[in-house]
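Input structure tokens:
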């Protein structure tokens, strides 16, 4: 019971924007990993909206609710819908039993269920329309949450890999005792990439990311008549590349993105090939901000049993931003 009370308090503080950045990230990780906790968050969120429209929040809570929770247009729509439904069911002629009067106030959605139980058919058409709106909005929120959960998990995995590699580079620098220029440059690139990923995580988690997907095949080699042109919209946040393989002889792969001049732009961690209708494919995810107009070479290598790398293919393409 104490644990549930503590969860309730943390969720309310999260919804009102009263947690520190570290506490916020820990709580978001918990509701992405734990379905029960996510359901509890939705319940507390509904109760908080209900308390606001019924004017049951304290002055400080109401001020925080309006400053933080209502900052999102989608949340303002939900509050407006809840307020309209509460006013509607309050003014309706649905009978309320004496036993219900003796209990504490129920939420607007519980009140609607009570109307169904009383079978007041004179208000059923309007009630059905209100329920339909709730179902549509709820379905959209669930779909968006699932998409965001997958994206956050992918970004967190990439960030953890970048952090591990950064720590490894720092250890190598300490052992050498002198600053190695090549390792220092690579360390700076890793930090820059990690900062880009952290900036993505810092964006509001309820807003969808814009992504663009490209398919690259092994025949895209340098020296062809003309490289494949990849057009990346300026509004794109994320670039997904699907690399099709002639075979799949390795347990894992590594990818390196360079300009045609040989400047390293990005390198991956361990990658896996996955089955596709057309064979095996390795999928990469990169921030769109890494790309500028110009020609690039993407090199894919297979990791052999002894840990060494063997070139699998090079993909030559031209990037245009619009």
């Amino acid at each position: 019971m104490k644990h549930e009370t503590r969860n309730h308090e943390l969720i309310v503080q999260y919804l009102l924007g009263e947690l520190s950045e570290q506490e916020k990230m820990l709580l978001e990780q918990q509701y992405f990993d734990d379905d029960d906790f996510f359901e509890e968050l939705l319940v507390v969120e509904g109760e908080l909206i209900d308390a606001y429209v019924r004017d049951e929040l304290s002055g400080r809570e109401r001020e925080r609710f309006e400053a933080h929770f209502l900052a999102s247009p989608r949340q303002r729509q939900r509050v407006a819908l809840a307020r309209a439904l509460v006013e509607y069911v309050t003014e309706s002629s649905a009978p309320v039993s004496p036993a219900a009067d003796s209990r504490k106030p129920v939420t607007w959605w519980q009140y609607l269920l009570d109307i169904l139980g009383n079978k007041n058919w004179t208000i059923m058409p309007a009630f059905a329309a209100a329920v339909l709106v709730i179902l549509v909005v709820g379905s959209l929120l669930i779909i968006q949450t699932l998409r965001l959960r997958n994206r956050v998990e992918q970004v967190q995995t990439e960030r953890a890999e970048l952090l591990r590699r950064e720590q490894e580079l720092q250890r190598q620098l300490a052992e050498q005792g002198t600053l190695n220029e090549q390792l220092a440059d690579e360390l700076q690139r890793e930090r820059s990439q990690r900062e880009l990923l952290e900036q993505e995580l810092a964006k509001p988690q309820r807003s969808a990311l814009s992504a663009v997907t490209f398919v690259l095949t092994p025949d895209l080699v340098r020296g062809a008549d003309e490289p494949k042109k990849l057009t990346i919209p300026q509004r794109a946040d994320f670039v997904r590349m699907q690399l099709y393989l002639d075979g799949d002889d390795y347990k894992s792969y590594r990818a390196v993105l360079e300009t045609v001049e040989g400047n390293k732009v990005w390198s991956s961690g361990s990658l896996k090939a996955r089955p596709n209708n057309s064979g095996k494919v390795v999928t990469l995810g990169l921030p769109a901000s890494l790309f500028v107009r110009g020609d690039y070479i993407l090199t894919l290598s297979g990791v052999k049993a002894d840990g060494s790398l063997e070139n699998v293919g090079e993909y030559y393409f031209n990037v245009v931003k619009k």
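Residues 94 and 168 are 67 Å apart (CA to CA). The radius of gyration is 26 Å.
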